[in-house]
Write a structure and sequence with these properties.
The chain contains twelve helices and 24 strands. By secondary structure, the chain is of the alpha+beta class.
């Protein structure tokens, strides 16, 4: 077993890189904002900064652009254009989910994964079943399962006479977050109460003469356990690149030989998460001298005594990583956990999203919230920029969310990050093909705080997308780049116009 990649690298490369592309565009106005006088509430001089309408026209985006900017000190809407339009919020939804989870579960909430014995342990022998029971932890990874196997041995277990069972029923199973996404999209895995490595399996290939050597594993920075519950076959075809089939106890994949080249690797989604986690745990148990039977998925909640418990980091830390790396599985798990706490029982993803909508209306004033999930992966979700900006503007909400958001880098005309830029932005981005969103907090050079949301979307262009394609649809890269440029131009305009 070898040292390969850190969890941070895994999150960065395995998660963010698999999301839909979000390319920065050149700013539409100067990077150094020019302060301009405010001649009255909501009015500005016209010479110092381009009008918002001119910036939108210059971006040349088909579809709709809705934005809103709010003064958090007074709650006054400073500027708005089509702000009431209900548009897909994409991953900006995760900011709403974070507030939902923090209010419901608390910043110190931790998810727990347990090893449960259904019988007594006598002289090192477990006379009953061993159950690996998930508690909806979205961050459980290979290293944690290795630690649990070692802890089982430390607890005195040398042999298990009963069955090895798996329970993921804390969360209703769902084979994919959004069925409209490509089957091979690593950002669209299954949902379960028992998850591992964000329900992604690592696929690696290397050409060896006329053939390819392929491997499927659950690697971490310390271990590289092979898995057999996900199998890959190289097929003699040009397209599609990946084909998935349900093999009963296995995920069966094939990949087009013509697409492989000399070698490479990527993370693929897992559709049978309990079996994935169970196989990896059994590998580590075997390394500890504990041989387990073939894993069996159970439906009823297990009873018995807890032999080993693994707890996640505190929710605040989990959410910080979720917002930084935009991990869809984390968003769905924390949203589902919050709804379960509120309703006193597990809910499906659709039920949980429906429960978050009235909460967003009552707690955040988001009357237009019609969210279909907790991650923003569904393009059928709807929210308005005005509601988003007002919802983030509350003093308590800002104190909860702002420290968790990532700094949004402003760039020069060549696309390079401008270090020590006088305008400071922390925000959550959202990107789908032909959808680009941004919402968060601005601190102007004069020390003024602003809250904003910018939603851009083209339903007509999205309607032309082929969900089975492997590459971005024609025009998506340029469209999203221009949307990013517009976002920066608007932020700089607001800093110049409302910055004092």
């Amino acid at each position: 077993m070898s040292c390969l990649v850190s969890r941070r690298i895994f999150l960065t490369a395995g998660l963010a890189a698999l999301a839909a592309p979000a390319l920065a565009g050149a700013p539409a106005i100067s990077l150094r904002p020019v302060a301009r006088p405010v001649r009255g509430p909501g009015t500005v001089a016209s010479r110092s900064a381009p009008a918002a309408e001119a910036l939108i026209a210059r971006a040349n985006l088909s579809g709709r652009v809705g934005f809103a900017v709010v003064d958090p000190a007074t709650g006054r809407m400073l500027e708005e254009s089509d702000g009431s339009a209900a548009l897909p919020p994409a991953s900006v939804t995760k900011a709403v989910t974070a507030l939902y989870a923090l209010e419901t579960l608390g910043a110190e909430h931790r998810f727990e994964t347990r090893l449960i014995a259904t019988g007594p342990v006598e002289n090192g022998i477990l006379k009953g079943d061993l159950v690996l029971a998930g508690g909806g932890d979205p961050t459980l990874e290979t290293n944690a399962l290795a630690g649990m196997a070692a802890a089982l041995k430390t607890a005195g277990v040398r042999e298990v006479r009963g069955r090895f069972r798996l329970w993921g029923g804390a969360v209703p199973f769902r084979r994919a977050i959004d069925e409209d996404q490509p089957e091979h999209a690593g950002y669209n895995p299954a949902l379960s109460g028992l998850n591992l490595n964000y329900n992604r399996v690592h696929f690696e290939w290397k050409r060896q003469g006329a053939r390819y050597a392929v491997a499927m594993d659950a690697r971490s920075d310390r271990y590289r356990p092979d898995v057999t519950m996900a199998r890959m076959r190289v097929a003699d075809r040009a397209a599609p690149v990946y084909v998935y089939s349900d093999g009963g106890a296995r995920d069966e994949w094939s990949v087009a030989r013509a697409a492989l080249g000399a070698g490479g690797a990527r993370w693929l989604p897992v559709r049978k998460p309990e079996r994935y986690a169970g196989e990896v745990f059994a590998t580590f148990a075997r390394a500890q001298g504990i041989t387990l039977g073939a894993p069996e998925v159970m439906q009823a909640a297990p009873g018995g005594s807890v032999l080993v418990s693994h707890k996640s980091e505190a929710l605040e830390t989990v959410l910080r990583d979720m917002l930084r790396y935009s991990t869809n599985l984390t968003a769905e798990m924390v949203g589902l956990a919050a709804t379960s706490r509120r309703q006193g029982g597990a809910a499906t993803l659709a039920q949980s999203a429906q429960a978050m909508n009235p909460w967003a209306a009552a707690s955040l004033g988001m009357k237009t919230a019609a969210l279909r999930d907790h991650s923003g992966l569904s393009d059928r979700s709807r929210l308005s920029a005005a509601d988003m900006a007002r919802g983030l503007a509350g003093a308590r909400r800002a104190a909860l969310l702002r420290p968790l958001l990532r700094e949004f880098a402003l760039r020069d005309a060549r696309g390079n990050v401008v270090r020590n830029h006088p305008v400071k932005v922390v925000a959550k981005t959202g990107t789908l093909y032909f959808v680009s969103t941004l919402a968060g907090y601005v601190t102007t050079p004069g020390g003024k705080d602003l809250v904003f949301a910018i939603f851009t979307a083209s339903d007509s262009l999205r309607a032309q997308i082929n969900p089975a394609q492997d590459d971005s649809p024609p025009g998506a890269r340029g469209w999203n780049g221009r949307a990013k440029g517009l976002q920066q131009a608007l932020i700089e305009r607001w800093s110049a116009v409302h910055g004092r």
